[in-house]
Amino acid sequence: MLQPLNQFILKSAVVCAAVIAAAFPSSAQVNFSVSPVRVEGGLTEAAATVVYDKTVQILTRNSASASGAVDVFTVEPALSVTGQSQTSGLVRDISTVSGELVLVARNKVDGARYYSVTVPLKAASKSGNSDAVLALANSIKPTDAVFTRFVRVAREKVDEYYSDHCSEVLGRAQTLAASGKTALAMIYLTGVPASAPCHEESVEYIAALRGKIDDDIAKEEAKREAKEERDWQRWKEMNSNPENAPGGNTPALSQRPSPAGNYGIFIEDPNWKFTVVKAEYLPTARKIKITASIEYVGKKSLSGECALGFRQAVDEEGDNYERCYVEGSKYRSFPDGVPVKVEYFIEDVKTNPGILQFVGLSVDYKKIEIRNLPLSL
User: How far is Cα 235 from Cα 268, in angstroms, rounded to an integer?
Assistant: First the structure.
């Protein structure tokens, strides 16, 4: 059994690429993303969406919008209702609502608060209170001068913060890296402005951390390849000598009788239950898709993840399909008595063979064979 390292390796590589791209921004100005708006204090979901969109417009209009996983700076918008009243009209009642929009510029990683602004709002609606709150959100005008000033001052405050707290920022980054949060430390340092006295030092530290992540990825990849080679050798040995299988001289599955034309599933280990949920030919993709349910029914719980294998498939004409694979990670966890969905694919299938005479699979290096599988199951 092998722990799945593929997701860790891929995620680390993607994070590294994004961080390095952000470490050398095309603009020297500080940009902000927008944090989600909390729905509370009478604020409706629809009104929260409007507040979020209006904040994005404010930043975009002032050339201060940044989006992506490695953004360090964010603006937190909050809309609160401070008063509501209702008056009777000739035709219908009118609801009036007053409130405040608060924008706070923060650091995503360390939570530092740089600057905030409070803007009073007022709106009316001929419908109920919920519509009045939505009208209050819609009354936000991204073109107002107060928002241009907010962006300008927030940028200035960020520069001032890093000028006064450079050593603290570097210390936090080192603490993050020492605790195993290397990628987060790199992201944190990308926020250091070019005007800060520790900018060059932060860029050098980013490069050093990037090298560490690259080394870690290479080591994990080498471990994975070595383990897969050992697993492959074990699998070949077990399949070439039936006596190595549990139960001693149990005949190999391929030697067991299978009535011609009859659909059947044969499992080497009785601790496993295998069911074909659906088998189909996908003409547009030129693939065969087999959806299965695998359940561990043994009395002794598994200690880790189990390897899934797709050895081969043969149709009624005797054609052997070799481009077979398991969708997603081939190492899965199987909780006791819980069916786990697994999808198998066969590529480069030009026409629908109708029936697969033989399908060879494995779970935890135990053989599973399917005979005469119709592709309309």
Answer: 14
* Residue 146 contacts residue 120 (beta carbons within 8 Å): no
- H/E stretch holding 239 reads helix 199-240
- Residue 149 has which token pair? 């000033």
pLDDT value, residue 71 = 77
CA-closest candidate to residue 61, choices 135, 153, 151:
151
Instruction: State phi, psi for 228 to the nearest 5 degrees.
Output: -65, -35
Q: Let me know whether 148 and 257 are in one domain.
A: no
pLDDT at 237: 64
CA-based radius of gyration for the chain: 31
Class of residue 51 by CB neighbours under 10 A (exposed 0-12, middle 13-18, buried 19+)? buried
3-state SS, residue 350: coil
365: containing domain = 253-374
Please count the other Cβ atoms lying within 10 Å of the Cβ belonging to residue 119.
17
* pTM, 2 dp: 0.54
Asked if the structure places residue 130 within a domain, the reply is yes
User: In the predicted model, is pLDDT for residue 239 greater than 60?
Assistant: no
The pLDDT score that the predictor gives to residue 313 is 94
- The residue from 175, 192, 221 where one domain ends is 175
Judge whether 100 and 118 are in contact, CB under 8 Å.
Answer: yes
For residues 98 and 119, what is the distance between their CA atoms, to the nearest angstrom? 11
What are the tens digits of pLDDT across the range 97-120? Answer: 888 999 999 999 999 999 999 999
| Three-state helix/strand/coil letters over 180-229 | CCHHHHHHHHCCCCCCCCCHHHHHHHHHHHHHHHHHHHHHHHHHHHHHHH
Residue 162 lies in a domain: yes
Helix (H) or strand (E) holding 303: none
Give the total number of structural domains in the chain: 2
